């Protein structure tokens, strides 16, 4: 650990910055961001003799005086950065020479062991070529589309874009988002089979070898019939391995062959340019051409993982040899897309010689394109050429080591171990150690929380009891459930005046819900017979994005009403009702899980998403930069435990401000001596350091908690900041310990809500 104080000059100002290498270089950049407004990715930090300071610099010896240059808009600076990056990614000549030599040697070896025999490889590819033709059958496509909840998936696709702030997606963006939803839905709707349960009693079975196919099985291309004997009743259960995806739409089960076969039909049924990927080391998956990426994208339906071609070699530790892409109009060798160890892979390719293989593929491709027009063929050939160029380029680029890939998840543990594809679950991670700065798209969350204030004041005014107040909120909740169940593009519901006693109060208090309806992009109108019509006010996706947030908030409010002693304005003390929830800030974390555990998930107001730090059990941090660099006073915050794995819950943490800023006049006086800064060095020993009080940009500790325990999942806990009175534009949570560090390497949190004092 090295702790230094630097004087950083930028334009005409100089800032004192304390930096501790334990915090990580990103934290230094973030501190500079909060001081200068130069975003971290546009910062260039220069030391003595204009040497570039990076995370690899020796912080013990670099100059006290640093200079910050913004590379924004300065073209040559950007060009230099890009060059530096591509230099890092590109291999040195020496490395390249070594690889080319290894490749040559492998080819030489292949020359000795492999013949020019084309049959064996052709025998394995041909059946798949016939199989992909089935995806073009309009009847099969129609039947496939009928099994998909299209409206739901379209809504989910639009929500996922809306959550990124994209409410006006292009057709290409929508198609891409829909494809991913199709993948996730498919993974949920298809079942993995090792040994099928007994037909007769449902108990476990064990393999009894192969049987002979009957006529109803051969009708759907099942030539291999696996037999399983029941461990309890000795009944024999048949497991026909169907090849016709039409049958798979009905059975919805199998191993990777069935999964990829059926999923590729779905992709074709929704018009995606798709191909079936056949890996000779016994796996099958799908690729779709992505117009937004301008290339083919890997999709593994068994795993629900996309665009991670190194998953098999790096994650599953597979020793690949041949990987072929089989489409309706061509067959390609795409092995090089899935490896970064080409010479090693080449040394395992001994079924046939490379020229003989290339001839087989081009023969089949020519055959498949026989009936196409010259124009279409030349377009396909152009695309092939672009793909081959990109593959060759990718092969010699360095592996992206910052992303670690997960082991195989499909199939049970024993089956994976038997295939040497098992990696312990704790290491299953798509985590990224260098996260980008992300913006929270969560102003709707703040709007919804704020809208509860008028509702609760009215309830306190009119309700005779806690029970009655909770009932009113339940009535409102049911109205929203009706809306949620209606088609998302035309959501509408009609509320007839409720005639019970709580209905009477509901009618009296209904006007106070208008702010909440507004936050949901809904409108209400008095209809005929005194009913109230509630319908969409603007973009339907805004309502779709907001609905889960309001459901979770309602549950929380109802729960709190049940818990409080009396229903009055003081008993409802949770901060979200009284304070300004910060939103739209920028977030940077020490690490995050892709794609579902990114840092901004802690701020989206929904329960099921969470921020997950794959290496966070030993300590991790998240920095929140207030929108527009506004100075605010943090007075309280709420943390919510995530959906599962209590061992990953936060136990000890500290909250600091990123900039000492100004004291709020009159507050916190007399506490000046008490500001302490807590750090944990790499060995995990806690130490308390004196923090600097004036000037500079040290991290001042605002609040510290130890031995906290979340008893339940989705449990919210409110913390009032112990040393308020600071105006700051950035806050850092340092999570020092999780509930059980022996059981996990991970940290996770369901949500973080920051509440500012009213200014
Ligand atoms: Zn049985």
From TrEMBL:
<feature type="compositionally biased region" description="Basic and acidic residues">
    <location>
        <begin position="660"/>
        <end position="672"/>
    </location>
</feature>
<comment type="similarity">
    <text>Belongs to the transglutaminase-like superfamily. PNGase family.</text>
</comment>
<feature type="region of interest" description="Disordered">
    <location>
        <begin position="647"/>
        <end position="672"/>
    </location>
</feature>
<dbReference type="InterPro" id="IPR029071">
    <property type="entry name" value="Ubiquitin-like_domsf"/>
</dbReference>
<dbReference type="InterPro" id="IPR002931">
    <property type="entry name" value="Transglutaminase-like"/>
</dbReference>
<keyword id="KW-0862">Zinc</keyword>
<dbReference type="InterPro" id="IPR038765">
    <property type="entry name" value="Papain-like_cys_pep_sf"/>
</dbReference>
<dbReference type="Pfam" id="PF01841">
    <property type="entry name" value="Transglut_core"/>
</dbReference>
<keyword id="KW-0479">Metal-binding</keyword>
<protein>
    <recommendedName>
        <fullName>Transglutaminase-like domain-containing protein</fullName>
    </recommendedName>
</protein>
<dbReference type="GO" id="GO:0046872">
    <property type="term" value="F:metal ion binding"/>
</dbReference>
<feature type="domain" description="Transglutaminase-like">
    <location>
        <begin position="248"/>
        <end position="303"/>
    </location>
</feature>
């Amino acid at each position: 650990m090295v702790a230094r104080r630097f004087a950083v000059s930028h334009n005409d100002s100089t800032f004192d910055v304390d930096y501790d290498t334990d915090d990580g270089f990103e934290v230094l950049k973030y501190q500079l961001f909060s001081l200068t407004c130069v975003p971290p990715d546009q910062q260039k930090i220069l030391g003595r003799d204009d040497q570039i300071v990076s995370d690899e610099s020796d912080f013990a010896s670099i100059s006290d005086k640093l200079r910050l240059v913004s590379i924004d808009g300065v073209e040559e600076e950007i060009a230099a950065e890009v060059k530096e990056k591509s230099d890092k990614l590109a291999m040195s000549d020496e490395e390249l020479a070594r690889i080319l030599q290894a490749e040559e040697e492998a080819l030489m070896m292949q020359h000795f062991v492999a013949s020019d025999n084309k049959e064996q490889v052709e025998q394995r590819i041909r059946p798949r070529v016939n199989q992909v033709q089935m995806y073009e059958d309009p009847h099969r496509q129609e039947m496939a589309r009928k099994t998909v909840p299209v409206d739901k998936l379209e809504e989910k696709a639009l929500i996922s874009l809306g959550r990124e702030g994209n409410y006006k997606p292009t057709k290409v963006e929508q198609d891409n988002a829909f494809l991913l939803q199709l993948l996730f839905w498919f993974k949920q709707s298809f079942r993995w089979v090792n040994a099928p349960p007994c037909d007769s009693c449902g108990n476990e079975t064990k393999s009894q070898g192969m049987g002979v196919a009957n006529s109803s099985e051969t009708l759907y291309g099942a030539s291999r019939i696996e037999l399983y004997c029941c461990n309890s009743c000795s009944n024999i259960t048949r497991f026909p391995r169907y090849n016709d995806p039409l049958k798979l739409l009905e059975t919805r089960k199998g191993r990777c062959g069935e999964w990829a076969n059926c999923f590729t039909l779905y992709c074709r049924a929704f018009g995606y340019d798709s191909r079936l990927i056949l890996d000779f080391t016994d796996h099958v998956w799908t690729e779709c051409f992505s117009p937004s990426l301008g290339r083919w994208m890997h999709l593994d339906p068994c795993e629900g993982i996309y665009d991670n071609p190194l998953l098999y070699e790096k994650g599953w530790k597979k020793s690949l040899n041949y990987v072929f892409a089989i489409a309706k109009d061509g067959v390609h060798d795409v092995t090089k897309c899935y490896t970064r160890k080409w010479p090693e892979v080449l040394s395992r390719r001994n079924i046939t010689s490379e020229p003989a293989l290339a001839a087989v593929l081009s023969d089949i491709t020519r055959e498949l394109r026989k009936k196409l027009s010259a124009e279409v063929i030349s377009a396909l050939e152009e695309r092939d050429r672009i793909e081959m160029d990109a593959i060759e380029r990718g092969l010699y680029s360095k592996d992206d080591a910052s992303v670690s890939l997960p082991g195989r998840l499909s199939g049970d543990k024993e089956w994976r171990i038997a295939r040497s594809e098992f990696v312990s679950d704790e290491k299953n991670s798509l985590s990224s150690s260098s996260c980008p700065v992300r913006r929270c798209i969560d102003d709707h969350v703040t709007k919804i929380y704020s809208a509860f204030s008028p509702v609760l004041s009215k309830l306190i005014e009119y309700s005779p009891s806690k029970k009655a107040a909770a009932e009113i909120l339940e009535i409102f909740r049911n109205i929203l459930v009706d809306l949620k169940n209606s088609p998302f593009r035309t959501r509408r519901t009609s509320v007839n005046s409720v005639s019970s006693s709580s209905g009477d109060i509901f009618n009296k208090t209904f006007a106070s819900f208008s702010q909440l309806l507004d936050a949901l992009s809904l409108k209400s109108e008095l209809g005929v017979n005194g009913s109230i019509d509630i319908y969409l006010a603007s973009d339907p996706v805004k309502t779709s994005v907001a609905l889960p947030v309001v459901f979770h908030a309602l549950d929380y409010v109802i729960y709190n009403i049940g818990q409080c002693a009396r229903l009055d304005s003081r008993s409802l003390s949770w901060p979200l009702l009284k304070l300004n929830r910060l939103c739209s800030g920028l977030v940077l974390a020490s690490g995050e899980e892709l794609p579902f555990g990114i840092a901004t998930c802690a701020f989206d107001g929904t329960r099921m998403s969470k921020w997950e730090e794959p290496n966070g059990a030993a300590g991790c941090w998240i920095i929140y930069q207030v929108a527009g660099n506004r100075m605010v006073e943090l007075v309280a915050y709420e943390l919510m435990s995530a959906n599962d794995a209590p061992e990953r819950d936060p136990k000890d943490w500290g909250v600091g401000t990123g900039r000492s800023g100004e004291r709020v006049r009159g507050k916190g006086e007399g506490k000046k001596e008490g500001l302490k800064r807590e750090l944990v060095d790499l060995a995990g020993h806690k130490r308390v350091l004196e923090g600097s009080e004036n000037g500079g940009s040290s991290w001042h500790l605002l609040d510290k908690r130890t031995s906290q325990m979340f008893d339940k999942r989705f449990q919210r806990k409110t913390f009032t900041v112990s040393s308020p009175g600071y105006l700051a534009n950035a806050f850092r949570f340092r999570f020092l310990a999780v509930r059980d560090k022996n059981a996990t390497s991970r940290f996770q949190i369901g949500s973080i809500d920051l509440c500012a004092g009213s200014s």
